From TrEMBL:
<dbReference type="InterPro" id="IPR000326">
    <property type="entry name" value="PAP2/HPO"/>
</dbReference>
<keyword id="KW-0812">Transmembrane</keyword>
<keyword id="KW-1003">Cell membrane</keyword>
<dbReference type="GO" id="GO:0016787">
    <property type="term" value="F:hydrolase activity"/>
</dbReference>
<keyword id="KW-0472">Membrane</keyword>
<protein>
    <submittedName>
        <fullName>5'-phosphoribosyl-monophospho-decaprenol phosphatase</fullName>
    </submittedName>
</protein>
<feature type="domain" description="Phosphatidic acid phosphatase type 2/haloperoxidase">
    <location>
        <begin position="64"/>
        <end position="166"/>
    </location>
</feature>
<keyword id="KW-0378">Hydrolase</keyword>
<keyword id="KW-1133">Transmembrane helix</keyword>
<dbReference type="Pfam" id="PF01569">
    <property type="entry name" value="PAP2"/>
</dbReference>
<dbReference type="GO" id="GO:0005886">
    <property type="term" value="C:plasma membrane"/>
</dbReference>
<dbReference type="InterPro" id="IPR036938">
    <property type="entry name" value="PAP2/HPO_sf"/>
</dbReference>
Length: 177
């Protein structure tokens, strides 16, 4: 893979620094840490999907949503291992939370959260899921564990993968009916 351009690096660093300056001394840090734990390995999203499935209503939709989250998270991990971009290491923006690896691109949290928005949006409402996705993306930058380009790319990847999974599963479910 090619390295990010100098312009992208400058933008990533500037946004990292400005996000930390704007939100670093606010309750947003505690919220970001909570979201970080919730989103680790997509476990919070899978628990939400399992709870929705357990209600007995719209089980096929909940299953499709969970499948999209799993597929998107897996895709993010594979891309991360291929690209091997190292997490931010700016002296003035230290990481505020631990991470399971030193790899940064794309953000798996952003991948799985965007996938959850696609998959669970029909049941929970798309606007709230879009807001949660935006908050998750900002949180990863605020915590200093991702570049802005990591979170945007993760969200695009997660949206694409989850959309494809949802289309396939709902099309297959329609054939069974």
């Amino acid at each position: 893979m090619t390295a990010p351009s100098a312009a992208l690096i400058r933008i990533d660093h500037a946004v990292l620094r400005s996000t930390r300056r704007a939100l670093g001394d606010t309750p947003a840090v505690a919220v970001a840490r909570g979201l970080s734990h919730f989103g680790e390995h997509a476990l919070g999203w899978l628990a939400l999907g399992a709870a929705g499935w357990a209600t007995g209503r719209r089980r096929e939709d909940w299953a499709a949503g969970m499948a999209g989250v799993v597929a998107a998270h897996a895709a993010g991990v594979v891309v991360k291992r291929v690209v091997r971009r190292v997490r931010p290491a700016l002296e003035d923006v230290p990481a505020l939370v631990g991470t399971p690896s030193r790899l940064s691109f794309p953000s798996a949290h952003s991948c799985s959260t965007a996938a959850a928005a696609v998959g669970f949006g029909p049941m929970l409402g798309r606007p709230p899921m879009v807001v949660v996705t935006g908050v998750m993306l900002v949180s990863r930058v605020l915590l200093g564990v991702h570049y802005p380009s990591d979170v945007v790319s993760g969200a695009v990847l997660g949206t694409g993968v989850a959309s494809a999974v949802r289309r396939r599963m709902t099309r297959d479910a329609g054939r069974k009916a």
